[in-house]
Amino acid sequence: MLFKTLDIIEPIQRALKKEGYTKATPIQEKAIPLLLNGMDLLGCAQTGTGKTAAFAIPILQGLSSELRNSKEKRQIKALILAPTRELAIQIGDSFKSYGKHLGLKTLVIYGGVSQNPQTKFLGIGIDILVATPGRLLDLINQRFVRLNNVKYFVLDEADQMLDMGMIEDVRRIIKYIPTLRQTMFFSATMPNEIEKLADYLLKDPVKVEITPVSSTVDIIQQEVYLVNKSNKIHLLIHLLKNKSMDSALVFSRTKHGANQIVKSLEKAGLNAQAIHGNKSQSARQLALKNFKERKIWILVATDIAARGIDIDELSHVINFDLPEVPETYVHRIGRTGRAGLGGMAISFCDQEEHPLLQQIQKLISKSVPITEDNPFPLAEKPLELKVAAVLTQKSTASKTNLPNYRRGTGYSSSKNNARKNDKTRNYAKNKRKENWK
Questions:
Q1: Exposed (0-12), middle (13-18) or buried (19+): which is 436, by Cβ within 10 Å?
Q2: What does each C-alpha distance from 151 to 225, 282, 357 come to in angstroms?
Q3: What does pTM read for this prediction?
Q4: Sign of CA dihedral 248, 254, 255, 259
Q5: How many C-alpha atoms does 102 have within 13 Å on its Cβ side?
Q6: Closest by alpha carbon to 249, among 189, 177, 309?
Q7: Overall average pLDDT of the 23-35 stretch
Q8: pLDDT for the residue numbered 337
Q9: CATH: 3.90.190.20, 3.30.110.10, 3.40.50.300, 3.90.45.10. Which one for 220-384?
Q10: What is the reported pLDDT for 338?
Q11: Which of 158, 98, 157 is nearest to 128 (CA)?
Q12: Fold identical between 3-209 and 220-384?
């Protein structure tokens, strides 16, 4: 469906056209008419489906219809909570782009940087506030932020907030927001605690579900390399040097692992940068900016830091470590299949990770092809096959009393046991004699 067929006002249509957006994604097509009618919404959608525009456009249109006395200080009318700085910044940029002809003021606040510039703009007055929960709660407690005029509330990436331990902060923030409001709740997955939070926040919501987590983008080519853990970095360097890749987002399970990968790549003459929670905000933004502007073509990230990264035409996603949660695999590889574009997802699987691979294949209901052209093949069998072999050996040993068998002596275990018993009886007999003496 084209944006021009939706009931969107001309200034927003003009801004969308300038951004090159003409066709609405499925979630935009379903959500925008419902939100324009003032309904609460529960959106089950993962990153890359276009959900930011799905809630930003109705909020901007709603705020533009309100008459404001230019002499009055602007009050925060819309609040959007996001789990990471990167996602908050991108949401803020979207509001500014889509609403550039509306005269509305948007501010993004997050931790890890000085609060002074943020409090300065808050003092002047804003219409839309995009925030991470920790910094927002801090500024509320310092009385820099008042939320009693909020009419639109968005909770984005709720499941990630749960993973990052932010839900309690979210609950505290909600107490400062009027109960009479329009709420939009987005989450890629719906664990029990998130369902309870959604039930608490939403009033008679409509549910919009796009791209179920159990399905992957069909146009993404997937493959897995079975490789020893110690050879993963060698395999990565080999692929980056020998495969045709325009851009590669490499996922590490840990911050330390991401740093080590970057060091190894740089030693091999490959320019790469890392983003993770231990990096400063400026360093993370610079790395992401360099990657988007193609100053570097390899970005190494942890899952939490990668949330909200919006990169067009990403050619490759490489899972250096398989994720422990299979849904995360879907989120990762979906970054290279956006806007109908193709891409490739490559995964490394060592011996201990084989059960994780099985869980992923069960979730997506298909087998990920194993690449045979592998310069660093797995030296040993996958873990569960190795365990099965050990169990078989133990079973055989128990039948033959193998641990008690003396190789090359000609004695069976039963003879050995008989001799031991004789020695024990003779020792006890001699001991009794000594005691009678």
A1: exposed
A2: 50, 32, 45
A3: 0.63
A4: negative
A5: 32
A6: 309
A7: 91
A8: 63
A9: 3.40.50.300
A10: 61
A11: 98
A12: yes
